[in-house]
Amino acid sequence: MGNVMSRSCLPECSLCIPKRRRTGPSKEVEGETEPDEGVLDTAKIQGERDQDNTSPGTTSLVDKERRAPSSARTPANISSYLSSMASKEDDHRKEESLCNVGGTAGDNCSTSGFFYDPSDTLRLISSDIEIQPILRAPYKASILMDTIYKYLIEGKLGDLDAKILTTLSELSRIAGRLPSGMYIEPLVIDGLDRSVETGYSDIYKVVREGIPVAVKQGRFAIQEGEKHREERDARGMREALFLGCLRDCAFIVPFIGVFDTRPVDHWSLLNIVTSWQNNGSVSNWTKTKPRTLDEIRGMIVKIAMAMRDLHARGIAHNDIATRNVLLGVDGRIMLCDLGLASIISPGEPTPSITVNPVEDEEVELAKCFEGPQLDVIMFGALCYELLTGIYLDQRHLALIYGGGSLKHLEAIDKANDLRDIIGRCWTTSVLTSMADIVALLTPGN
């Protein structure tokens, strides 16, 4: 990917090389020695510490609280105060903290002189005004992004919500990369035959530490246009970010990490690594042998529950289909391919569309809107495919949804309750949620 750096190409930060960043060479400017940008101004910091009445020989504020004191714990002061907490007497302790991220240095995530603890992080996320200076600085954005992701996967930020997702997504865009905690050692895929081919990418089966994994790589062509490349890169970053944030969810394919490869100089491709599922997708499941109505009904219920839970986490899939639902060895289903996923904003009204079937024959549903209602419509198409064996693309769905014609339901000559649910998914006057659908599918629960 053009704007995603590999692990080895990440900016040098004190997480990886604290001593070089902190004791780098100084610059000679007209006879004066000017500190390098990466070297902390300890004299200035010591002056700020003196203003805080921290006298020599007493317990330092870092020792005492490992965060800013209560007088400074406002969003406006958190970043500036915590970034000045380093001095010569704290250097050794800081080096240990920087070299052992998430280790023994307490609940601190610190990089390059910036300190954030979980409560500070949540304060910054919740303050639209005070986070703006960070959003305007790529290096600071990288620091905060890494902090948020670290605490998120450690469970220190509470439940995943739209605000955290939105902030991470924006920080990732500004930093031009994904959180450092996502990157793993590159895997060799050169010379391997692709196992699965999708519209935007190829999937390879690779053995990592004795276990098969799936490596998803965006498809690359020398002659591809810049717009196509940007769309592919954005799709890959979005998918990786959502998979990383949902890595503890049983209904999402397990996420392992990402790495970059460079097919040509100056261009890189993002590779997303997830667990390999030998049973394949629900699309494969329907083709292996004829399925009974009870089996189909059970599968529909599982997928509906997964979609309901995904929406509860603040994410819409926007491309739910039998090919994007994997089957685990234990029979559970896992959603995959989150490249078109989007964040559901709290309180955001569900959009609706009106499509003229004659004038807008080639309209794509995804261009009309995205979000929970698109998932509901496409879930109806998924159910329709499982019951009839007929796949409906987004053009067909746009005509059905916009024109209000439900004649396709005539093809379902069994399971009246499922037919009625599909009809609700495709009816503009009835905005049905995935939670409503689960309730209809499981009336006794």
Automatic annotation (TrEMBL):
**GO MF annotations, alphabetized:** ATP binding; protein kinase activity
Domain of life assignment: Eukaryota
Q: Name one GO biological process term.
A: signal transduction
Q: What is this protein called?
A: Kinase-like protein
Per the record, GO CC terms? Answer: cytoplasm
Q: Which Gene3D superfamilies match?
A: Transferase(Phosphotransferase) domain 1
Looking at the record, the residues that make up the Protein kinase domain are: 189-445
What Pfam family is a match, any one?
Answer: Pkinase
Could you tell me the keywords of this UniProt record?
Kinase, Transferase
Annotated Polar residues bias: 71-86
Region Disordered: what ranges?
18-95
Q: What is the lineage of its organism?
A: Eukaryota, Fungi, Dikarya, Basidiomycota, Agaricomycotina
Membrane spanning stretches: none
